Amino acid sequence: MRWVLVSWFFWFFGLILAQKPQVLIGTGGVGGVYFYYGTTIAEILNKAGVVQAQAMQSGGSIENLMLLRDRTDPARGLYYCGTALPDAALMAFLGEERFQGRPAPVRILFTMYPNYFHVVTTEESGIRVLQDLKGKRVSTEVPGGIIEYEARILMSAAIPGFDPKTHFGKWERVRVAESASLLAEGNLDAFFWSGGLPTGSILELAGALSRRGKRLYLVPLPPESTPVQVLQRRFPGVVDTGVIPKGVYNTRYDTPTLTFWNVFVCPASLPEEVAYAMVKALFENLPTLHAAVAPARDTTLENAVRSRGGKVPYHPGAVRYFQEKGVWR
Question: Cross-referenced Pfam families, in alphabetical order (predicted)?
Answer without folding.
Answer: NMT1_3 (PF16868)
